[in-house]
Amino acid sequence: MRVYSARKSRRASRATWAVALPAALTMSAGAVTAQESGYQGLEEVIVTARKREESVQNTPVSMVAVDAKGLKDRSIDTFGRLGEIAPNIEINGGIPNGGGSATQIFIRGIGQDDYSFPNEPGVGLYIDDVYVSRSAAADFGFMDVERIEILRGPQGTLYGRNTIGGAVKVVTKKPTGSNSGELGVTVGRYNRADIYANYDFALSPDVAMKAAVATFNRDGLGTNLIGQDLGEDDELDARVGLRWNVTDTTEVLLSADYMRQEQAGPAGSMVRFDPLDPTTDFLINGLLAAPVAAAYNLQSPADVYGSAYVRTLDDCDKCVYNSGGTVETRDDAEIFGASLTVNTAWGDVDMKSITAVRDYDIDIRRDSEHTPFDIVQVDNPETFTQLTQEFQWSGSLANGKLDYVVGAFGLLEDGDSELYAPLLSGLYAAVGADLTAFIETEYDAFSVAAYAEATYALSDKLAITFGGRLTHDDKEYVYGLSRPESGAVPLPPETLSESWTEFLPKLGIEYQLEDDLLLFANASSGYKAGGYNSRALSGIAPKAFDPEYVDVYELGFKSTLANNTFILNGALFYNDYTDIQLLAVLDLGGGNVETVIENAGEATIIGGELEFQWAPTAALNFSGGVGFLNAEYDEVGASAASAGILDSNELINAPEISANLAAEYRLYLPMGEIALRTDLVYRDEQYRDAVNTPELKADAYTLWNGRVTWSSPDERWEVAGFVTNITDEIFVTNGVSVLGLGYVEAYYSRPREWGLSLTMNFGD
Predict the structure, then answer these.
(1) Rounded distance, CA 664 to CA 10, Å?
(2) How many CB atoms lie within 10 A of CB 283?
(3) Rounded to the nearest 5 degrees, what angle is found at the Cα of 139, between the Cα atoms of 381 and 652?
(4) Check whether domain 4-763 has CATH 2.40.170.20, yes or no
(5) Closest listed residue to residue 177, CA positions, set 144, 146, 210
(6) 347, exposed or middle or buried, with CB in 10 Å at 0-12, 13-18, 19+?
């Protein structure tokens, strides 16, 4: 590992056809061309799951990887659809509690339920090895991506405190100085119109630069009563990178990215209404409904609030995308990031320094109960900045028998949030009530860690891995609540602080039984820091919650068979999950509710994955996998039980069975190459909230996607037609239960969509 640029260029040119493969494998979706003599089977794939470059089949980690070609072949262009590539991975974009840019990631039943400020994710997200601390800044278009690696299970040793469920690594394309570029256009249903362009060029023999820009635009899926197009999306992405080969042993990478997203709020609906207690029911229906009904020429019987605006899939299918609300919603985000990476070699030691800043500014406005009556509205602007610094040292000792990585990590976070929530605002004039909440919060955090991991070869076949990470977190939270309508200040600004120190160990054994069969076993721990509830609307002081923990034991294998044409990988795991942080809504009576994070208790998660890739010829490729999860609570605390989280409940986003199956066939013709591909994605029934609200249960579903691609003989032109969700399956993706105010709101998957894309490659 002396000359970084040369090595990376060689490895980049090696992979000619890559498809994301469930099973810890990235392979190319393109087969060997007809002009090539002799099919050699599946190509070696290089990943960096252990912070060093190595073949995916030699990496004793349960993972899945997909390159840019694999994403395109699956017609995946948003983070929210990334969960379709493999079993035991659930990813939903556009979470109502976190905004359209928020992404909900669960791996093997572990993730993050709430996305409000300042809660942290349960699966670590990394962009070019830069940690992204907020889920609200995670959903971005897949522009200029080289590959994505998804690591299953806690990655606390090498990746940090909040990788309790796993880690997602996004690796972008680096400048090569190729003096070439790409221009692409995609059009489709809902007036989709996307434009993408990039150009890679040399500034000098040692300096290369690359710039990319993309716009993503589409109409919404539904409307509200004032005619607003809900779910409409206008997004601009830009990325620029510079690579400087300072010497033969030193490389400097500078990159910056920007995203501006403007949405008209998600398309959702109220799916349940429960009669409230007599006092609250009278206030809502008797005093509030009448003036609102008069304003919008509506009927106002006592039950109009509930019955007239409940929309479920059983009622009218696609009408669930329509809201009965009259508030003009918005879901805007502006995100910026920059990083400086230095790779250098000092003798036998390779050193990496990563310095980065990320900043986001979001503005969310929602009519959360989806009725024309002024029951619950939310205005929530947030700003957040993070600074990170990481140092890594790696190399080999003992005549190459010991490979090691040693590192140090530091993070500073600073943010502020405003939450304006008019509750039952239509009652002010009638009874003088003032339930409006205006919350101002400030958040500061400091985190440092030191880590080390080493693999020692006991023999040619047997190796042991041992490692650990010592991490320390300090958090300070300033919270103030006012009632602007009355001027009351029930909770003056209060500063809360807490700190946690944890050591996360890892032990692994790998045995190369045969040249094409690797056996491995891992024992590791994960930890997610505690925090503070940010939605104390009732006048009760915000409640802190504790860290959560998981201990994982895993057995797995990776095999390459049939002359390198068939790969079969699998893993079994046992998770001991404690102090689980889950979102719950406490009913305080009289229409007062409190949405809080609770340490719900303990759970055991047992499961596994079995995945394959088979390419019997250069033109034919099959891949698939199946995952199993048995996720059950062992114990639930009293406070969680009072919020409706019972020990008989199922863990959220944890389908018992998940499966994927894909087939691709390539035709090599004089006029070019034609690729035919189909993908099936199956997910068993699962709940979207910890309380297991029936209306927030996603029934079992199967997604069927298809794509046809033509590539010119010189590979300069590509035309593709695609259809996603061919059978038009509609299912719940997320939602919120607020039964203290009498309703449940839900959000749904996107319906059938089709499109046509044209790509042109130009330059040297």
Answers:
(1) 27
(2) 20
(3) 95
(4) yes
(5) 210
(6) exposed
Residue range 352-377: mean pLDDT, rounded: 87
CB contact at 8 A, 582 and 643:
no
Report if pTM > 0.85.
yes
Q: CA–CA separation, 161 vs 92, rounded Å?
A: 22
Mind giving me the DSSP string for 433-480? ----EEEEEEEEEEEEEEEEEEEEESSSSEEEEEEEEEEEEEEEEEEE
pLDDT of amino acid 45: 85
The per-residue pLDDT for 281 is: 65
498, 416, 404: which is closest to 454 by C-alpha? 404
Contacts of 496 (CB under 8 A, 6+ apart): 476, 477, 478, 479, 532, 542, 544
Beta strands 166-172 and 123-127: pairing type? Answer: parallel
How far is it, in rounded angstroms, from Cα 43 to Cα 23?
15
pLDDT band at 16 (very low <50, low <70, confident <90, very high): very low
- Worst-scoring range by mean pLDDT, 207-221, 253-267, 663-677, 736-750? 736-750
pLDDT of 225 over the 60 cut: yes
User: Is the per-residue pLDDT at 407 higher than 60?
Assistant: yes
**Residue 481, pLDDT above cutoff 80:** no
Q: Which residue has the tokens 């639930």?
A: 636
3-state secondary structure of 177: coil
| Overall residue count recorded for the chain in this entry | 764
Which of 590, 617, 470, 600 has its CA nearest to residue 546?
600
Comparing CA positions, the residue from 149, 145, 163, 128 lying closest to residue 54 is 149
> Would you give the end-to-end CA distance of the chain in angstroms?
28
Angle CA(335)–CA(259)–CA(52) in degrees, nearest 5? 80
Percentage of the chain beyond pLDDT 70 is 83
**CB atoms < 10 A from the CB of 630, how many?**
12
Where are the chain's structural domains? 4-763
CA atoms of 353 and 341, how far apart (whole Å) = 6
Tell me: the pLDDT tens digits for 281-323? 666 666 666 666 677 666 554 455 667 788 888 888 888 999 8
Q: DSSP character for 183?
A: E
